[in-house]
Specification:
Helices cover about 60% and strands about 5% of the residues. The protein is mainly α. It has one domain: Clp, N-terminal domain (Double Clp-N motif), CATH 1.10.1780. The protein has a two-stranded parallel ribbon. It is globular.
């Protein structure tokens, strides 16, 4: 079973690939998708699908700000060396995920996924909405997965 530490390590890799030194909720989501989360898999959300939805959300945000991109996003600038640190959205997702576990040591990637999905606003909700994902159903499925872990 994948641990939270492994998810955070993978999320740091996702952040580096994005050219940032900050791990955010969408990096955690991508890391969870890499583990083959049953909830995400059942919803048809694998890593490439989520990456595409997140990239499209980023393009939409740039477009809203008046920046138009033709074609694919440019490659990320490599971040400075060092380990990426948890950003505000990742910390909030972790706090929400920990709050759903009976005990802190019982927290699983499914609890973290639930914490990510419970965010009412932000990059992840916009990307999932853009991808046509029923966030309520996905959140309910993640909640069921947390109870199945016990």
């Amino acid at each position: 079973m994948t641990t939270l530490d492994q998810i955070i390590t993978q999320a740091a890799d996702e952040a580096r690939a994005d050219g940032t030194t900050t791990i955010e909720a969408h990096h955690l989501l991508l890391a969870i998708a890499r583990t083959g989360s049953p909830t995400l898999t059942a919803a048809g959300l694998d890593h490439p699908t989520l990456r595409t939805a997140l990239d499209q959300e980023f393009k939409n945000s740039l477009n809203t700000a008046g920046v138009r991109l033709d074609g694919a996003l440019p490659p990320a600038t490599p971040p400075p060396s060092g380990s990426p640190q948890l950003g505000a959205t990742a910390r909030s997702a972790l706090e929400r995920g920990l709050a759903t576990a009976h005990r802190k040591r019982d927290t699983t990637p499914a609890h973290l996924l639930l914490g990510i999905l419970q965010a009412p606003l932000g990059t992840v909700p916009r990307a999932l909405d853009h991808a046509g994902i029923d966030r309520t159903a996905l959140t309910d499925a993640a909640r069921r997965e947390t109870t199945d872990d016990h």
